[in-house]
Amino acid sequence: MPQTTELITTLKKLLKRHNKTYVDVAACLQLSEASVKRLFSEHDLSLQRLDKVCALLGMEISDLVHEMRAEHAKPISELSHAQEKEIADDLHLLLVTVLVLNRWSWQDITNRYHFSEAQVIRYLAHLDRLHIIELQPGNRIKLLVAPNFKWRDDGPIMKLFLAKIETEFFRARFSKDSEKLMVLNGMLSDASNALFQRKLTQLAKDFDTLSKDDASLPIGERKGSTVLLAIRDWDYERLFGEQRKPPPSA
User: pTM to 2 decimals?
Assistant: First the structure.
């Protein structure tokens, strides 16, 4: 598809998003509505007219190009190590990142946290540069990450989260209705261990689905929830002291 066609297609979507009609465009360009429809159907907008329509939407042509590229960009499922480090090195940026991934708007963030509007917009612009979001006119946020987006295994952000889990997550009695702690011990074959891991993976997907389903609810009806799923070979003597007999000598 030629780039001009893609650009006009994106422009039509933006007009609809901003509740602008061909009548509005016709008034802006001082043309008849029929002429505007013909220009759009033939993808025959001059640069000058394109600039005027963009101005009608409160944006520049460069913003339109950015929007077009974002529409055709492949959603990212994982950041690079360097990108994660950028976020992990700034805890305020990390907080905004996590909130945005949970579908918070910039108004939600400023209403809940001690951030000014300018601070939040600066953090959102940073996430825009990392292609995690697209910062749209009116400071609307469009997520660009794939549905299976995750932090890098053993990456900067995962290491930071694990450190917080060690020092803070288990500082609770897990006695509230919204909390639950279960510790299981048993002896599993390799096959059973693999089966259980698949069940854990499915459980994680179920959690993610519920989180996405609840994304449309008001912020006041949602609570930040963290689930830790883990299994490892961990012999009982590690709990009760080393009592295992040494292997028989040859």
Answer: 0.65
